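Q: What structure does this chain adopt?
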Amino acid sequence: MRLKPIIQRAFKAIIFIIISTWILLAIFIYFFQPKLIFFPHNEIEATPALISLQYEDIALTTIDGEVLSAWWIPHPEARATILFLHGNAGNISHRLDSINIFHQLGMSVLIIDYRGYGKSTGKPSEQGTYIDAETGWNYLINEKNIQSNDIIIFGRSLGGAVATWLAEKHPPSGLIVESSFTSVADVGKHYYPYLPTSLLARIKYSSIDRIAKIKTPTLFIHSKNDEVIPYTYSKQLFNEALKETTTAKSFLDITGSHNNGFLLTGKQYIDGLNGFITDIVHQ
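A:
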């Protein structure tokens, strides 16, 4: 008979531990979100010179006083210009493979490091990355005298969300969204299905709310083998984008993991990019 109170107390203790852990995890995610989303790396490990490309190491000042590190890699016979917005980890020195691909496709490239990344000052934030992307755009327009219809915005992973924001505000000739997501809340739901991530997400990056408003040709790229960002998120973005019917929308399936899919896919990936760029250039 004495076992019943003991079991009840043990059960209550277990429930208390579960609820307490749930609350603590929710509090941690709410207050420490930037640490879970942004993974900047400050050391520049290589430059385009390593792959025999001429480049300019430039510094761009944002409207709120941060100084961004960026590379301008011109092509002598450029078909158009890529504004490259990278993912949430590393810095511009980890994107040489992609820079080289775009160069081989006849593109000039401007790639920026968000605040807090590489040699850029400040700390990363959602609004900060938007300002940083717009700073890169303004540099191309005002300093390089490149027309908006000669700029293609490319964003990979988190950069896809930044690119979507920028393309809504400053329509380019084309938008490429690679291995990206619908919103931070949705990604949170994928990793923490037992938490109310829609309420906890202070950082939004809600591309799903913007993509149908973008009136520019858009290419979505994703691998079904992506272990970080589910493939279904890009499909959701693509289907939502199709609601805007005045410009072409296309989807390119690749293979491989989140970080190396574009390399493993090889020719199919490069041909897909080339076809999209060619269609835009010939418009």
